[in-house]
């Protein structure tokens, strides 16, 4: 569930692409994806969790079917409205079937993102095999 070097008009398009990957692969239903967009409309750039990284999500009851995440890298990076961490280059679409799974997924991604050179390497990936190797 990885798409590299996507050109997006805005944050909502990037979130929609990350959400659609989750829908297409059976991790959530369409309602969950729509709620990801609604949360961004309502709460704004809180999903930008670190420099270059956004983690859009919704609540498990909004249509989560199984836990996991999608990855979309953006080229060029786009602003999500977070002065401290824009522009965003990586969107991790998150889905968890319960709050424990949701926190577990975020923790695993945070550990990866804190690994030396991970973020820069993922941003610079040009092929899926390279990206998959970084994520495992």
Summarize the SSE layout with pairings.
Elements: E1 2-6, H1 11-24, H2 30-43, E2 48-50, E3 53-54, E4 68-78, E5 88-95, H3 99-113, H4 118-124, H5 128-135
Parallel strand pairs: 1-4, 3-5
Antiparallel strand pairs: 2-3, 4-5
Account of the 3D structure:
The protein is an alpha/beta fold and about 140 residues long. The protein has one domain (about 1-135): Mannitol-specific EII, Chain A (3-Layer(aba) Sandwich). It is built from five helices and five strands, in the order βααββββααα. It has helices spanning about 10-25, 30-45, 100-115, 120-125, 130-135, and strands spanning about 1-5, 50, 55, 70-80, 90-95. The chain has a five-stranded mixed sheet. A hairpin with a 2-residue loop joins strand 2 and strand 3. The longest helix is centred in the last third of the chain and has 15 residues, at about 100-115. The radius of gyration is 13 Å and the shape is globular. The chain starts with a strand and ends with a helix.
Give the strand order, joined by hyphens, for the main sheet. Answer: 1-4-5-3-2
Which structural class is indicated by helix and strand composition? alpha/beta
Number of helices: 5
Q: What is the CATH superfamily?
A: Mannitol-specific EII, Chain A
- CATH top level label: Alpha Beta
Q: What is the global morphology? A: globular
Q: Percent of residues in helical segments?
A: 40-55%
Question: Which strand-content bin applies to the residues?
Answer: 15-25%
Q: What's the story with the biggest beta sheet?
A: 5 strands, mixed
Uncertain segments are: none
Give the H and E element order: EHHEEEEHHH
- Compute the number of strand runs: 5
CATH architecture: 3-Layer(aba) Sandwich
Q: What is the averaged pLDDT score? A: 94
Cα(first) to Cα(last) distance is 13 Å
Our Rg estimate from Cα atoms comes to 13 Å
CATH fold naming: Mannitol-specific EII, Chain A
